[in-house]
Amino acid sequence: MIGGGLLSETPTIVGVSAVGFARRGVAELGSLRNVHLLSRATACGWYDCNVFGAVDGVQKHVCDLRAEVPVERLRRIVAKQAILAAGAEERPLLFRGNDLPGVMMAGAMRTYRVAPGQVSGCRHQTTAATRWPAISNKGCAACADR
């Protein structure tokens, strides 16, 4: 799904919800003749003269594969102009118990924060690119009665 982090945000952008803003942008791009949206592609390289490699998951999401259609396609994209918006892909830390219920990465917690009827918990451990984790449950309204 196109939208990235906006799909987990609650603020408004130009008077529209973040999700609505993302949808509006995708619709506008889709209406342009010179734009081809690759919603299942991952860029795998940026080379000289704005040449890009991209792996397009043509049938990665399909249960019943069609023999005449490739599962993935490697695309060579040549662009007149390019914007580097790398984003990020979360990688789980390996530790005992990382697969227990309630243990989640920051992106999942962010999504649960805005999902209706969801509570992500009160005792948080935040691990960042430093050596020192922080454990905190201060200011958690859901923990007030515990």
Largest sheet: 3 strands, antiparallel
Distance between the termini: 38 Å
Fraction of residues in H or I helices: 10-25%
Stretches where pLDDT is under 50 for at least 5 consecutive residues are 129-139
The chain-level mean pLDDT equals 77
Structural class: alpha+beta
Strand content: 15-25%
Q: Give the radius of gyration.
A: 20 Å
For the largest sheet, list the strands in their spatial order: 3-4-5
Number of strands: 7
When the domains are counted, the total is 3
Count of helical regions: 2
Looking at the structure, what is the overall shape? globular
Query: Which H/E pattern describes the elements?
Result: EEHEEEHEE
Question: Could you please describe the fold and organization of this structure?
Answer:
The chain has 146 residues and is α+β, with helices and mostly antiparallel strands. It has helices spanning 18-30, 106-114; strands at 12-13, 16-17, 41-47, 51-56, 73-78, 124-126, 134-136. The chain has three domains: 1-37, no CATH class; 39-89, no CATH class; 90-146, no CATH class. 15% of the residues lie in helices and 20% in strands. The strands form three sheets. Strands 3-4-5 form a three-stranded antiparallel beta sheet, with no helix packed on it. A hairpin with a 7-residue loop joins strand 6 (124-126) and strand 7 (134-136). The radius of gyration is 20 Å and the shape is globular. The chain starts with 11 loop residues before the first strand and ends in a 10-residue tail after the last strand. The relative contact order is 0.10.
